[in-house]
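ok new one. same drill as before - structure tokens go in, u give me an amino acid for every spot. 259 of them this time. try not to just spam alanines like last time pls lmao
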């Protein structure tokens, strides 16, 4: 029997939890399974709507306005979870964005902000979450990356691709935290997720651009299910789940020659 971490009665933070797509789906799934969920976001209206939907479904949630590029916001976000719900057990680093213009055409302050959002923000959140998770006896972190950071193909947003590649590698290097601090860090690498925002983006594409988009988009609820499985499965640490749209997700093997 696989050792299992119960989600019920745990305290979770979902960054980007106010977004109407993946962040909200993850927040709702964890709340449905009995977690007390902090939906953290810069979007106050979106975050409040996520909490309203959690409450309407009989769950427990709270919104906290946090910009994960701000160390002070991240510190206060973790303290809010502890003060409001009594601890922190689950962290989902979901917040991410890559508006144009992009490196190297973008000003330094623009691309730097989104490098911070997609990589430094998750690193800050993990660092501040470690102490309360360790105090609670165990913790689970799930990083949401992107296929933009996987492989060696060109990408239209180099800063986003580089940040997500870093997040994937970060996950693998943190596998020893499971032994050292009883905190498991895992990662999901999705392709195209069928959120309203992504569908609108596809609709605005030229026919030539749309030809490169897969027909089958991954529902955000499926990503949320994968997050829950990573949280629950105590055998998983430093593992990466690759999920191309229209294909079955697969766990990437642990490199035997990682340096």
């Amino acid at each position: 029997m696989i050792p299992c971490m119960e989600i019920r009665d745990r305290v979770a933070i979902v960054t980007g939890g106010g977004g109407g797509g993946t962040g909200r789906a993850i927040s709702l799934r964890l709340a449905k399974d009995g977690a007390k969920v902090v939906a953290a976001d810069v979007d106050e209206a979106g975050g409040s709507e996520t909490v309203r939907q959690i409450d309407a479904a009989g769950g427990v949630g709270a919104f906290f306005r946090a910009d994960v590029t701000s160390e002070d916001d991240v510190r206060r976000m973790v303290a809010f979870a502890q003060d409001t719900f009594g601890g922190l057990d689950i962290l989902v680093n979901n917040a991410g964005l890559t508006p144009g213009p992009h490196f190297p055409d973008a000003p330094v302050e623009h691309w730097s902000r989104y490098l911070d959002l997609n990589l430094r923000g998750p690193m800050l959140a993990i660092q501040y979450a470690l102490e309360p998770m360790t105090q609670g006896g165990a913790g689970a972190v799930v990083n949401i990356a992107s296929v933009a950071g996987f492989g060696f193909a060109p990408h239209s947003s180099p800063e986003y691709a580089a940040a997500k590649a870093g997040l994937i590698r970060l996950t693998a290097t943190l596998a020893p935290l499971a032994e050292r601090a009883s905190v498991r860090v895992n990662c999901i690498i999705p392709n195209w997720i069928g959120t309203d925002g992504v569908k609108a983006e596809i609709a605005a594409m030229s026919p030539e651009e749309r030809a490169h988009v897969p027909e089958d988009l991954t529902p955000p609820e499926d990503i949320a299910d994968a997050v829950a499985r990573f949280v629950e499965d105590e055998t998983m640490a430093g593992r990466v789940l690759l999920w191309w749209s229209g294909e079955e997700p697969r766990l990437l093997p642990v490199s035997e020659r990682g340096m």
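Strands lie at 11-15, 36-41, 60-65, 90-93, 139-144, 183-190, 240-243, 250-251. and btw The first helix runs from residue 22 to 32.
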